[in-house]
Structures are given as structure tokens and as C-alpha cells.
TrEMBL record:
It comes from Ceratitis capitata. This is RNA-directed DNA polymerase. It is an enzyme of class 2 (transferase). Residues 42-93 form the Integrase zinc-binding domain. GO terms for molecular function: RNA-directed DNA polymerase activity. Gene3D superfamilies: 1.10.340.70. Its EC number is 2.7.7.49.
Length: 287
């Protein structure tokens, strides 16, 4: 019997005998809790197994799993242990999407007040069209920012004459004013966009070197629709700025051997109670 192999339970049964103490009592050689509910006291070595059996009945929430266990068994400090089992479920880690707000705030790039100070590379496709067709932020054509005049192909000769006759200083000042105006427009739009973007997100989780994680599958297709949404197991090998991490595969299964990802597309790989117990026993054995 499992209770007979657990030190705390065995001592409790021996001390209690036939007398109850704080709702604990012995019946047919077994330790129970609460005479009205008759909850079987679970030995510490079986706590995770009992919780996991209840959880695997339907992969319930922590609250629902705890309610199922407490109908039959007594486990001290059960809420913390149930949460540990639920969050360490490998099937749920790789199959379920992350809940709540997305992680990470917008990190705008500082813009200079001169043309070609910042290059933008379209690597994810064109900007989405909105209902009010917002596709620009500075209201001034790039040619006018560079030259200070509107581009009219039929009047290039007039532009040459203008450049020859007008004072360079006046032309430069006018151009600089246009550039500053464009920079202010960009800064205003950027500030508003960051405020709106950040309002729907939360602080990114900070990951550490050698931490075990699962990473999101970023490529989907008709044949991958029912596949797990996350790959695992991965280990963080480099922590970079803006909530980015470089990870490499630390287990078997699908996914790239090494890649770079962001906190928004990562999940903590929570060790189970059994894993923690094995580590603790190994450390004690090395003392």
C-alpha cells in the first residue's frame, strides 16, 4: 500500500491509532481527512500522479482540476501543486495558443531630419490598407523633401533655371523647414501609433540563458492546420535586445535546430513536480 511507504502518512497512522486529530482519522488501516467527506490522504510520492489523472480526464482549468481531486482525495497545499501540473502539461504547451494580451511594446526607430537617414525594407509584405486609406505619415512627397519643389516632369528646365537664379541659402532654409515639418508629422503619428499599439499589449516576459521554452510555429498551411501550434523542447542560448532570444533544439520533435524568436512567440517550459523531485534527490545524493 502506498500510504505504508510514505513516512509522514505511516507516522500519522501510528500516532493517531483510533483517535481523530484535526479531522484526520484512521479507517481500515488508512489515513483519512474529514469524517464527513472521507477524503483519502495521498502520499507525497503519488500527489502528482493523482492530480495528473484528474487533469487528463478533460485537460480542465486549475480550479476545475482541484475540484475533481478534492471530491475524493486530500492533498496539502493542493492549489500550488495543481497549478504546477496544469502548466507543465506538454500536450497543452505545444497545442494551445497563448492567452491574454500579446507581449512586448512597440520599439520605434528614431528618425533623422534628413532624407535617406533611415532605410525601410519591406520584408513582411505591403502595409495594410485601412478604411480611410492611411498609407503615408509625412504628407509631403519624397521628391519635395529632397529638392524643395514639387516634381513636374514637363518643367525640368524651369527647375534648372530656378536652381541657378535663386539664392542657395534661401532655398536651403525652405527645404530644411519642409524636412522639419515632415519629421514632426512622423513623430506625432509614431507617438499615437505606439500609444495605441502598447494599449493592447503587456510587458514582455524576460527569459534567461539555458531556460527551457517552447516556440510558436510561424508557418501554417492547409496541411498544417491541425498540427501543434508550438515546437518544443528548446533552450535559450542567447538573450538579445527588444525581447528577442536565440534558441536551439534541446529535445526530439518538429522544428528548426536553431532559430531566433521573440517573447511574444515563446512559452516557458515548466518542469513537473516529478522533475523537480528528481533534481532535489540528485542534489541530496551529491552532498
Amino acid at each position: 500500500m502506498a500510504q505504508a511507504q510514505d513516512d509522514w502518512t505511516r507516522v500519522g497512522v501510528k500516532l493517531l491509532g483510533k483517535d481523530a486529530y484535526e479531522d484526520f482519522y484512521v479507517k481500515h488501516g488508512m489515513l483519512y481527512k474529514s469524517p464527513t467527506k472521507e477524503l483519502v490522504e495521498v502520499p507525497s510520492l503519488m500527489e502528482e500522479e493523482v492530480i495528473r489523472i484528474a487533469y487528463n480526464q478533460g485537460h480542465f482549468s486549475s480550479k476545475r482540476t482541484q475540484e475533481v481531486v478534492e471530491k475524493t482525495f486530500y492533498i496539502p497545499h493542493i492549489a500550488e501543486k495543481v497549478k504546477r501540473v496544469v502548466t507543465s502539461c506538454i500536450q497543452c504547451i505545444i497545442s494551445d495558443s497563448k492567452v491574454g494580451r500579446k507581449e512586448g511594446f512597440l520599439e520605434p526607430i528614431d528618425k533623422e531630419d534628413r532624407p535617406l537617414g533611415t532605410f525601410h525594407i519591406d520584408h513582411v509584405g505591403p502595409m495594410e490598407k485601412t478604411t480611410i486609406h492611411h498609407l503615408e505619415v509625412h504628407k509631403i512627397s519624397p521628391f519635395k523633401l529632397l529638392s524643395g519643389v514639387d516634381m513636374r516632369v514637363s518643367q525640368l528646365q524651369e527647375l534648372n533655371e530656378f536652381l541657378d537664379k535663386e539664392a542657395i541659402e534661401e532655398f536651403t532654409n525652405s527645404r530644411e523647414n519642409l524636412r522639419k515639418e515632415a519629421q514632426e508629422n512622423i513623430a506625432t503619428i509614431r507617438k499615437e501609433y505606439k500609444k495605441n499599439f502598447d494599449s493592447k499589449r503587456k510587458e514582455a516576459t524576460v527569459y534567461e540563458l539555458n531556460q527551457l521554452v517552447a516556440i510558436k510555429r510561424t508557418q501554417f498551411g492547409s496541411s498544417l492546420r491541425l498540427r501543434p501550434k508550438f515546437f518544443g523542447l528548446y533552450k535559450v542560448i542567447k538573450v538579445m535586445s527588444h525581447s528577442r532570444c536565440e534558441v536551439e533544439k534541446a529535445g526530439q520533435g518538429e522544428g528548426p535546430m536553431r532559430t531566433t524568436t521573440v517573447a511574444e512567440n515563446m512559452k516557458k517550459w515548466v518542469p513537473s513536480l516529478e522533475d523537480k523531485r528528481n533534481v532535489w534527490m540528485a542534489e541530496c545524493g551529491n552532498v
